[in-house]
Design goal:
- The protein is an alpha+beta fold and 270 residues long.
- Helices cover 16% and strands 39% of the residues.
- It contains four helices and 17 strands.
- A nine-stranded mixed beta sheet has the order 14-15-16-13-9-12-11-10-17. Strands 2-3-4-1-5-8-7-6 form an eight-stranded mixed beta sheet.
- Helix 1 packs antiparallel against helix 4.
């Protein structure tokens, strides 16, 4: 697969205290299979859909035990240069660029409104081998408590074009503030940004929501709950597909979307 353009989502992973429990959960809910753990790299274990790499799970390093969460990595052609841009734009580096064998170079950052994300400069590991299809990464959104800071930061660090969603006069979306970040042209959206309103509990910080594609949203939600996971929102129909926000039994939040089941007209962007 060709390398991802600068700023494109290219990989996701998550730390789990109960790695075998995570494997069981995601095998059932998303249909993943798992490769051998790489003991040289902290038992980092890749997940596959139809034999193609789609994500990875890893046990926490000593001292990092706690709440599990998915981390979205954005592609960089030069991780050191991107790290410099992150600092200049008001972000914080939680992990400075670090080479991971021949696989590539990674960094972990926090944008000024508080959402954590990763940076990946590919070596042998290019990133997703499957995208947008069932069992793989489909989309991601920065949920922010300070959208002005988040918007300015993302546009300074990566070469995004930005469009505001025109929500019209519908009372159902009154007060919603949603933007789309694109690469190359507005026909190539790669990320969303949602304003966190009063519906979100005050203790929930800014975060990145990762969406995985599934053949049936309701079935994925039912399986999530059967394993002891939680439903946070939905299922809900939309022009983009039927989706729901959930969390696995270890607390890692994500969303599932059936992109084939669309309802309503696509919104306009300006």
């Amino acid at each position: 697969m060709a390398e991802f353009p600068e700023g494109a989502p290219c990989w996701v992973d998550a730390m789990f205290s109960d790695l075998e429990g995570a494997k069981t959960f995601y095998s059932d809910v998303l249909g993943w299979t798992f490769g051998e753990a790489s003991s040289e790299y902290g038992n980092y274990t890749q997940a596959y859909s139809d034999g193609k790499a789609v994500a990875a799970v890893v046990p926490p390093m000593p001292g990092q035990e706690g709440h599990s969460q998915w981390c979205l990595y954005l592609a960089s052609h030069d991780a050191e240069a991107t790290a410099g841009k992150i600092k200049t734009a008001g972000g914080e580096l939680l992990m400075e660029p670090m080479q991971v064998g021949d696989f590539g170079t990674m960094a972990i950052a926090k944008e000024p409104s508080g959402a954590v994300f990763g940076v990946w400069q590919p070596g042998e590991h290019k990133g997703f081998e499957k995208l947008g299809e069932q069992g793989s990464y489909a989309w991601a959104e920065f949920f922010s408590r300070d959208v002005a800071k988040a918007d300015a930061f993302l546009s300074k660090v990566f070469p995004y074009g930005v469009q505001q969603m025109d929500l019209g006069d519908s009372p159902e979306v009154s007060g919603m503030d949603f933007k789309v970040f694109s690469l190359g042209s507005h026909e190539n959206p790669v990320l969303g940004r949602m304003n966190m309103g009063t519906d979100f509990p005050p203790e929930v910080p800014s975060y990145v929501q990762v969406y995985f594609a599934v053949p049936d949203c309701d079935e994925a939600v039912a399986k999530t709950q059967a394993h002891g996971g939680k439903l946070h929102f939905g299922p809900m129909d939309s022009p983009f597909g039927r989706f729901a926000a959930v969390a696995d039994p270890q607390g890692a939040a994500f969303a599932v979307i059936d992109r084939a089941k669309t309802v309503g007209e696509m919104p306009k962007f300006a």
